[in-house]
Amino acid sequence: MTEKQLADFIERGREVLKIEENGLAAIRNDLDLSFAKAVEMLAGCKGRVIITGLGKSGLVGRKIAATMSSTGTPSFFLHPVEGAHGDLGMVRAEDVVIAISNSGETDELNSLLPAIRSFGTKIISITSEAQSSMGRLSDIVVKTKVPCEACSHGLAPTSSTTAALAMGDALAVCLMDHKSFDDKDFKKFHPGGSLGRRLTLCISELMHTDNIPAAPQQSRLKDALLILDKGRLGLVALTAESGKLSGVITDGDVRRLVCTGQFDIDRPACEVMAQNPLRITPDMSAAQALDIMEAKEITVLPVVTESGTISGMIHLHDLLGKGRLKFADNQRG
């Protein structure tokens, strides 16, 4: 391909993304009380949330069902054709059905909704046409009308499916907030995932406790650096006479001392240490430690008791393994 062709692809890709952005902006601006009523209905659901849709809308529905199920709202996807051939038996009066169709005129779906209504089951529709057949069969209509599809011919579902997917996310997140669904709850539904595994562990189960790189704060810088090097964690903790953590020196601190001409191996370590450094406690979760490390861009944290004495060290690799993430080692925050 020529350079011009490649450049054209880039430009066209940007156009598509802009059209999709405009679609999301449109449904955001159109969001009204119907959305809030839908969240209220879903929050009060005593059964399951059942998502249904056909074709691309069905694929979107599967994703919404998966998101809701993993965030505390029992949900599953019902294929409208399978529903018409027996799977409708899974629907109960206490359930809430979310039907997805951009046009609201999907025959296979609309032929199913009267039967669902006959059970006493509430129906929320996600569609661009509130007055469509599906809209009229629904208790609540959440409108997702976009200005246009990103497809050149306006035929392939693109902006409309993005809008439906985003609306599903908006519903799911509002439900999470309403239920005060937190990381511990998330762990219960993701016991096999990496997030779930790290959330199950406390710092006390992961931290280094043998040969902790620590030295009295009045030690010579040379002696503190020998301990830092031997500890191989990139940090040496410095303690006051009381035994409490008073500061740290990191590999990065040493580098800065050398670069600024302030490096003197005979200086007291307390003169160059970072005072009142970040620290965590043994009962904190691995997820909390990881959040601190990511926010402050550091790779190692001292672990202290309630009295402030050092009980261990935790490294980013202890939480994630030796992955590709790289963080600075600035303990000064």
TrEMBL record:
EC number: 5.3.1.13
Pfam families to which the protein is assigned, alphabetical: CBS, SIS
InterPro entries to which the protein is assigned, alphabetical: CBS_dom, CBS_dom_sf, GutQ/KpsF_isomerases, KdsD/KpsF-type, SIS_dom, SIS_dom_sf, SIS_Kpsf
TM region positions: none
CDD domains: CBS_pair_SIS_assoc (cd04604), SIS_Kpsf (cd05014)
Ranges for domain SIS: 38-181
Binding site for Zn(2+): H79
GO molecular function: arabinose-5-phosphate isomerase activity; carbohydrate derivative binding; metal ion binding
All copies of domain CBS, residue ranges: 207-265, 273-330
The protein, known as: Arabinose 5-phosphate isomerase KdsD
Organism: Maridesulfovibrio hydrothermalis AM13 = DSM 14728
